[in-house]
Description:
The structure holds 2 protein chains of 2 kinds. Chain A is mostly helical.
Amino acid sequence: MTVEMWSIIAAAAAMCLGVLGPALAAGLAVRAAMDAIARQPEASGSIGRNFIIGLAIIEAMAIYCFVVALLLLYANPYTAQG
Amino acid sequence: MESTPLELQVLFHVGPVPIAMPVAITWVIMLLLGAGSWLLTRRLSLHPGYRQAAVEVLVKTIADQIRTVIEREPEPFMPVIGSFFIFLVFANLSFLVPGIRPPTAQLETAAALALIVLASVNFYGIRQRGLGGYLRGFAEPSIFLLPINILSEITRIFSMMIRLFGNILSGEFVLMLAIGLAGFLIPIPLMALELVIGVIQAYIFAILTAVFIGAAIHGRGRQQQERETDDDS
């Protein structure tokens, strides 16, 4: 198999495996935030803001995987086109 | 694949400097925002009309958010954080104009914005606590954590850059795939999703800038002190 084929497989694998963790983490965060808002609706403003910040930081992990996949496909240093 | 999405498309040259497409779009957005702000604030009155009231609502919302995050009066921070938010909303939503790629979908634009964040965080930290006090903050709570603190200062800025770039570019990819599969009406809900993501990313970038500036102003020992006062009460 050539480097290009391996790169495509690696990009797909990076996205599949790399999204699992952030998905679980985001689910836990949503559950915790909904719990907190249900218990204390008057604090929903600050809970919501911190929830969005936390989601952004969780989501960064998935975005790293996306960037690695992009690098493998479009800016691979081991292929001639890169 | 003849052109990759990471590649810059050069429009024209000013002297020896090549001007790429995102730079030109950024200039147009800057021009629009500057002219718009000048037009909207030209005739301010105590009894505001519809336009002035709308702008006041926006400015007051940004100021309130900054006040709750930094816990200071928001005036010194409004120029940086407010313009980040408004510029990023316009930049992220510029894909609605046909033929325009959002400039934030290029790594270079996101990197430039992240460098501005790095500079302003250090500027506000040094201005508030003095050079010595600010630098001593890196050695808290112990001198052995100095390299880790410096590393975290750099990596969080790096992650801001990657987050903005990756979110906008991935949205563009999804749209591209949807248009390739079914060009008629199918991309419209995805474009609506992109609208939401663009605004949320602008909000997150601005609020994270506020959080970092707040951390630089209050210092790393703040949470510890708060915990101690909580124990006392």
